[in-house]
Amino acid sequence: MNYSKPKKKEHHNRLILEKSPYLLQHANNPVNWYPWGSEAFIKAKQEQKPIFLSIGYSTCHWCHVMALESFEDSDVARLLNDTFICIKVDREERPDIDHIYMTACQLLTGRGGWPLTIIMTSEKQPFFAATYIPKENKFGQIGMLDLIPQIEKLWKSQRNKLVTSAKTITDSMQQTTSHKFQDELNKSTLDLTYNQLLTNYDEQYGGFSTAPKFPTPHNLFFLLRYWKRTNDKYALKMVETTLEQMRLGGIFDHVGYGFHRYSTDEKWLLPHFEKMLYDQALLAIAYIETFQATNKILYKKTSQEILEYILRDMTSLEGGFYSAEDADSEGIEGKFYTWRYKEIEQVLTDEELEIATKVFNIKKEGNFTQEISQTESGENVLYQTQTFTELASVIKTPSKDLKNKLFTIRKKLYRFRKKHIPPQKDDKILTDWNGLMIAAFAKAARVFKNEKYLKTSQKAANWIISTMMNSTGELLHIFRDGESGISGYADDYAFFIWGLIELYEASFDIKYLKHALELNNYMIEHFWDKTNGGFFFTSDENELLLVRKKEIYDGAVPSANSVAMLNLLRLARLTGTVSFEEKAVQIRKAFSKVVHRNPSAYTQMMAALDFAIGPSNEVVIVGNKQDKDTKAMIYALNEYFMPNKVILLKSVNEKNSLIEKVSTYVKNYVSINNTATAYICSNYTCKAPTTNIKKMLETLGVKKHRK
Fold it and tell me: Domains in the chain, ordered, with CATH?
């Protein structure tokens, strides 16, 4: 799995000319792969062949398995080449294609996932869909060696029937893209969302499903806001239990930090080992916000550990953030992250070994069963079943001493692990996922008063602005190997705007707010559905595919419409632009029918709805950014969990404050007695300005100030 351009062997296919790490992995397959493009579709029409479309991504474990079993096999390759025109797509490079054909797969099979396998006509209309397909028949599932001849036979004998079926499926897909207004989403929708999450909640281990168990941080974003709104303490408990159990479990990398993709069991103990950038960003935000809500050091520490991992392993020299790290190394899933007892015994002193064994549940014979993992036998996944305080009591060591000893143990294990062959890194830089990470670093900079985090966020944002935007103001989606390309999708705009808003409120550098507004206007102009409302996933200038979809489901990452709705509300309050709030209302209406059926599947949108319903606040600080009183006032605003507010800074040391050009309503705001002054408006009503931090916080609903 070499992610650099492969050396030209005797056989290579057209993918050798691509930049995508995933496509390059398949450049030397005996399958005659084409990248997505007109050449493949013209060839299919000329030769009257169906198209075999395979969609995956570079860190997908089962994509690797299918490649090894079938795409590198000469017998399967011969059948594929004789029967089809074969196209490979990287879902992270072309999410627009992936969204469309994943919908087809779900319509045809009732499920989805990767690798995604589609067989379709040269008109791009699908008639067969599956996920992973083995080489040979097993466990009742047809294998490639039998499936391909069957498809070939049907194509020759019943082509008209297949084409008609493909058109019917396409019509059904087009119907799924139309969203009709039913009822206004309101406070009762928030209550329903909470009750649905409560029903699915695992009281013992946290999370909202049985195995496999995914983090889904936007569920936690919503629950924190619901707790803030209702003072329902159990909503906060659901968040805390989930985050605590995840931090204890093997889904967290206790040696190198960062979270793995998901847990294969309900206890968060045995992960699927890939690490995705978006998980790190969203989970860091969840831990930061929970720290604001509770002031518990565990959440601060965990978020800082996530960011340490990103700074150390996932940040490019230019400042952008890499996409992912593989689950596999040396051909085995999780090999890099699991430990044999003898390895740990070799690294640690006897005392350290005794502590590590108790803390991380290490066993000589290994601590998980082979039935649920492909790792080698006798391996240990490091996980905890007790909190730090509980461990100190069991081990009978003062907390401070145990903390120091665990730091030494982790450091030794990390150095030893570094000598092993690491998983491959997917070093492409995606604008949308970088937007999420910029938001995480900016939020951490605000809450923890950390200049390094702020500079990291600024460097990444500045790099995207200079490298991933063209002269027309359009965002590009992907950068790799010195080149940026592919027109941006709605996710790129929504997520990067989110990052820019957070960065403005962390730095009060007006350029970030200006860029957020410019990109927001571009998004409205080129992605907005002028008939039914909401944002299409692709621009009106993008390639025209089978259907033009609008994404609303908040899955592994939130949808662009959910994030954009909150962006629009925040920008409306930051600038006083009423039309932005009207657009947010239209999003709320456009998807109301589908959201009403199961609102817990749209928790990021519910977070936006929570802001829209209010109460929400605009806070303008008038003062000198460098003065202690101004800094104290700003930090007090960032110290507590108050999600439904925006903050602006009007600098008194500027003759003509730049913020006045963007937010004209602050023009007449002045400092009182040359002291930092807070102007607060809540739910369209403004309060008397104050220079007193305690009074400011009371106005915002903070009953007890942490001094």
Answer: 14-176 (3.40.30.10), 189-330+426-613 (1.50.10.10), 337-420 (no CATH), 617-699 (3.40.30)
